[in-house]
Amino acid sequence: MRPILNWLHVLVLVLLAPGRILAAESDPHALDRQALIKLFREMEASINAQDVERMVAQMHPQATVTWLNGEVSRGHDEIRAYYHRMVKGEQRYLDRYLTTAKLGAPARFFGNGEIAVADGTMVDEFFPVARGPFSLNSNWTSTSAKINGQWQVVSMHLSSNVFTNSLLAEATQAIWYAGGGAAIGGLLLGWLLGRRRR
């Protein structure tokens, strides 16, 4: 039985090998792309696990992150400090922050293939301390470098549409409600004053 299994194993490898060779020939960065996708999935998982140490483990010690609120963190210590202030500390803004990230297009490689730039979209869910949860669609751009044979994020930029987003829609709705309430209140007050004069 064992010789048959070994023969089947060799046959499968022989059949799969040409496909792997063709993939490598058509895309010389195929293995790097797989490593980068694994890196980004680990970043996403670390955010959703609220684990900043797991997140910085995917980043170069001198990495730069531009966050959704426009703040910039340079290096692991500043990234940790930002995350602690926003999500973990006593004066935190958020209880939790979840994200679902998608790759917009295949990564582009530069230099000797050791620099990769990728971008995509995110659907973020925020759970603030002072109000109810809300969702925000945003974009990300990341630059990664292959250092000592390992891919690491060296720069990450997060952004959202400042002109059209769920928070602005909520604020606009609140203004309309407040304006409508004030108008109704004014009409009611005028009616009551008119009745008193009679």
From TrEMBL:
Organism field: Candidatus Accumulibacter proximus
InterPro entries: NTF2-like_dom_sf
Name listed for the protein in its UniProt record: Nuclear transport factor 2 family protein
UniProt keyword terms in alphabetical order: Membrane, Signal, Transmembrane, Transmembrane helix
Keyword Signal: yes
Keyword match Amino-acid biosynthesis: no
Signal peptide interval: 1-23
Residue stretches spanning the membrane: 174-194
